[in-house]
Sequence to fold (213 residues):
Amino acid sequence: MIDRLSVIRLMPVAVIERAEDAWPMAQALKAGGLPCVEVTLRTAAAEAALKAIAKDPDIALGAGTILQPDQVDMAVAAGATYIVTPGFNAKVVRRCRALNVPVFPGVATPTEIQMALDEGVDTVKFFPAESLGGIQALQAIAAPYSMVRFIPTGSIGLAKLPEYLACKAVLAVGGSFMVAPELLRAGRFEEMTRLSAQAVALVKGSKPLASCG
Fold:
C-alpha cells in the first residue's frame, strides 16, 4: 500500500452520508486518474460505503477516523486495505499490526512521532496540517526524522498541493476538496472527476523532490 501511495501521492478523504453515493464517487475518482479513497467513520453510512467501494479491486480503499481497535476489525471486514487515525493510539496500531494491515496514525508533535516509531510505524499522518502551520511546520517537524514519511492532511486544497508534493518527506497528501460534502450531497460526480484530474496533473507536474529540512 505504501508503494501504491508513493505513486498516486494523493489520498482523497471522504465523509459519506449516503451509502448509495459511495460507488459513483469512487468511480468518479478513478475516472479522474485517482484510484484511491479514505472513507471516514464519521457517519452511519461508512460501513456500507466501504463494502460498496470494496467491490472494485482497483481502488486503494482506506478507513479513516479509526479511534478504537474494534473499529479496525469492522473496517477490515468491510474491505478496507489500510487504516488512518486522527491521533496516535497504540492499541489501534497494535491491532492493525496483528491483522497485517497498514496503519497511518495521526501525529502533530515530535513526541507522537517517537511513539509511532516505538511501535514500528514510520509512515504517519500529519494532522491537521494547515492548522498546525502548513508546509513550514511540516518541514520543521520532519527535519530530525529522515526515516519517517508523512501524509499531511487537513485543509489542503489544489493551490497548496505543489509545495507539499515537493517535500521528499511527503509520501502522499490527503485532501477532501475533490470529494467535498457539498459535491456528494449534490451528486456532482463529474465535478469530482474534473477536480481529481486537476490534482493528478499537479502530481505529474510537481517539482523534483526536495529536502524538508
